[in-house]
Structure formats: structure tokens, C-alpha cells
Specification:
This protein has 93 residues and is mostly helical. Helix content is 59%, strand content 9%.
Length: 93
């Protein structure tokens, strides 16, 4: 679980466990396909990372928003975005 800082100063939960990915594949194949296509890329850019964070945001039970809507909501702090991305994909436990 990771906390995403939003532009308005609030924090939102994000989660991306294997179970979340399994459920996503069963219940939202379009979003699962987006996730797996990004993970297949040799090199990710910042927008790819934000796409992954958006998917984790949705997996944590937050309202599904478009990528464009999510870009408007998420903090513009690049360091924070990178931290959240790495916490989701490479958790310490």
C-alpha cells in the first residue's frame, strides 16, 4: 500500500498486489491490459509511471477516473511520484 499525494494536499491510498492484478484481469480487462502493456516496455517514462499509479489508485477502491482526470488530481512533485511507483512495484515486505 502506498499513499499518493494529491494536488489539493490530501492523500489517497494505492495498492497493487498480485491479487489486485488478478481481480483486475477478471473484472476490468482493459485496465489490466494497459498495466501489462506498460510493464512489457523496455523503458518507462514518467507518464507510464503515473498510469501504473492510477491503476493502483483504482485497485485500492478509489473511484475510477480517466488518465486525464488523474493527471489533474495527482501532485506534480516528480520525486513523490517516483517514490509511490517504486513502493507499489517493489514493496519492502
Amino acid at each position: 500500500m502506498a499513499k499518493i499525494l494529491m494536488k489539493d494536499g490530501t492523500e489517497a491510498q494505492a495498492r497493487l498486489t498480485f491479487k489486485d492484478l488478478y481481480d483486475l484481469e477478471k473484472n476490468n480487462s482493459k485496465l489490466a491490459e494497459e498495466y501489462f502493456e506498460i510493464q512489457d516496455k523496455e523503458k518507462l517514462n514518467e507518464l507510464d509511471m503515473i498510469r501504473i499509479i492510477r491503476i493502483a489508485y483504482i485497485c485500492a477502491g478509489n473511484q475510477e477516473v480517466t488518465f486525464e482526470e488523474f493527471l489533474e488530481k495527482i501532485s506534480q512533485n516528480r520525486n513523490q511520484v517516483l517514490t509511490v511507483y517504486y513502493e507499489l512495484l517493489y514493496p519492502k515486505n
